[in-house]
Amino acid sequence: MSTRITTSLLLIMVCIGIIRAGFGQPPANDIQPAVGINKFDLFKQYQGTPMGAYAGSAYQKVSRAMAKKAIVDAANAGITYFRVSVTGFQPAAYGEPGDLDLWMHDPQAHWALFDELMADLNAAGVRLVPVFVWNVLQFPAMSGNETIADLIADSTSWSYQTLIRYISEFIQRYRDNPTVYFYELSNELNDHADINLFEVWCDGKSPCGAVATFSTDELIAFTGRLARFIRSLDSTRLISSGFNLPRRAAAHLRRQPAWSSDGPDWTPDSKEEFIQHLAEIHADMDIISIHFYNSVEDTLYPDTRRSNVRWGLSGATNVELLDVVKQIADSLNKLLFVGEFADADPPILYDRTAPFSQNVLNKIVELRIPFSAPWVWQFYKYQPYLFTEFSIEPGYTDFFIEKIKEANRQLGNSVPEPTEPDTTPPQVVLVWPLEHAVLDSITLVAAVASDDHAVASVSFLVDGNVVQTIHAPPYAFLFDPTGLTPGTHVLQAVAQDTANNQATYATIVDRPNVTSIGQQHSQTFPRSFRLAQNVPNPFNPTTIIAFDLPESHFVTLSIYNMLGQEVARPVSERLPAGRYTVRFDTGRLPGGVYLYRIEAGPFHQTRKMLLLR
């Protein structure tokens, strides 16, 4: 199907004032295209507040070390810029702790921490794309009484004024710092326009904290106002919207949003409507932003077909839509940023060849798209040993990392080659347990490690004595501290590369005076059923599966391969109410994706886990 934009359409866009010269510098032919990467949680790691984790200084020590490792790993892979939420993410509701609390109460300490991040990026030669509004709820929730509507539509609101105060301080501090690449206003803010956010986030309840609805016209006014403010502070850098690929019915919903008397219009847009809508929402931008996934599900609207399937384009790995978007950007004299892309079905953890993302990289090279960033670099959620199924991680997704390197080489960028002879030590962080953790039962011990060549092994030592050596990730095992004397002990992770260079990370752990440990059944009675994600995951060869029973039931815990065949049954018995942990040893099972399923009276639940061999 032809993707050529018709002359009449371009004339229409000229007539309505959409086509305009880029506001910032420089024109498209002066930009060296390069593939960066998403590391949206980088500053949260420096603060010690990764997603869902507020665990104090011990957590900050680990998460900051992981952030520094991520920067070095990116530089080794030839990645030259990170897309980062510089304002964080939390809070999402009134009264919650927030990622800008330190800035509000001690701005000097906040900016000192950010200075450290900038220095680390600069030392590694990695630039920063700062995103200012990642979570649209954040600033309204910080206010304690305002809503999204106040942020978007009222330039005098506390939410908006606080946002521009932060942006002003950021730009004034780093305007002359070459580490800042270009600015980005939001993360997928257009996804929330014209729909009923009360239904999406509040089960239809209104009012619901900081939640409110807004229109595409209000969105355009908001981002235009914000872009003009940024240009008044720094006219030398480009500005991107941070928008997602417009939903399939974006133009129709703009005309008939969710709160219309006739309800939302989910009629799919024609190609002409798509072109005009994409142009109009980027009228005040230098860079057109889209995010590009092959997901089959989206909870924000009822159209659940793949976003890359439109106007006769089809297939789970089809990327021809990028031809259309690149032509639109070129016709408007704007640059293009594929700000996120990833294999979402299945995610990279379960198919590390990432066929959709491979095709996106090939198209980026073919079209010489100026800016692009896969999702997501070394992203750990809730615990530092649990990276997400989308995480691009050395040791796990090396195949795709090599594809990123290859794309950057084809675009004409320099990608570092490992130095010979190899004298550079590995990167290693002992991520669990945290410092001064109490070892009163069998404990997960986990590290992350990487090297510019290859990690040969990670050894774990207690008080200088090796207790475990692992030669391939995941670098994790279950440690029984029964033999340790009461008191403090030194736990170390020692990574060694193939040239015998070593690096060590140590922490202090505490052993209480106990008489017995490791009982599977806790006498603490939970209030509800629960099947937890196994840890570690991925794993090899042993993992722990935890579950809660609020009442006594006959319980079966079964392991299945992806053909649906049961390969193990670790639990098959009546159990009293309580909290349980089951240690599962895979024996001779081959590596791959497995399912574990619990059946206990009315409770049935299945989860995935990944065994690496």
Explain this structure.
This protein is an alpha/beta fold. The protein has 3 domains: 7-410, TIM Barrel; 427-511, Immunoglobulins (Immunoglobulin-like), CATH 2.60.40.10; 521-611, Immunoglobulin-like, CATH 2.60.40.1930. It has 15 helices and 25 strands. The protein has helices at residues 7-15, 42-47, 56-76, 101-105, 107-124, 138-143, 148-153, 158-174, 197-202, 216-233, 250-255, 271-281, 321-331, 355-367, 398-410; strands at residues 34-35, 37-38, 81-85, 127-133, 183-186, 239-240, 287-293, 335-342, 371-374, 427-432, 437-438, 443-450, 455-462, 465-470, 475-479, 487-497, 502-511, 521-522, 530-531, 542-549, 553-560, 566-575, 578-585, 592-600, 603-611. Strands 2-3-4-5-6 form a 5-stranded parallel sheet. Strands 11-17-16-13-14 form a 5-stranded mixed sheet, with no helix packed on it. The chain has a 4-stranded parallel sheet with strand order 1-9-8-7. α13 (321-331) links the parallel β7 and β8.
Brief rundown of the structure:
By secondary structure, this protein is α/β, with parallel strands linked by helices. The chain has helices spanning 7-15, 42-47, 56-76, 101-105, 107-124, 138-143, 148-153, 158-174, 197-202, 216-233, 250-255, 271-281, 321-331, 355-367, 398-410, and strands at 34-35, 37-38, 81-85, 127-133, 183-186, 239-240, 287-293, 335-342, 371-374, 427-432, 437-438, 443-450, 455-462, 465-470, 475-479, 487-497, 502-511, 521-522, 530-531, 542-549, 553-560, 566-575, 578-585, 592-600, 603-611.
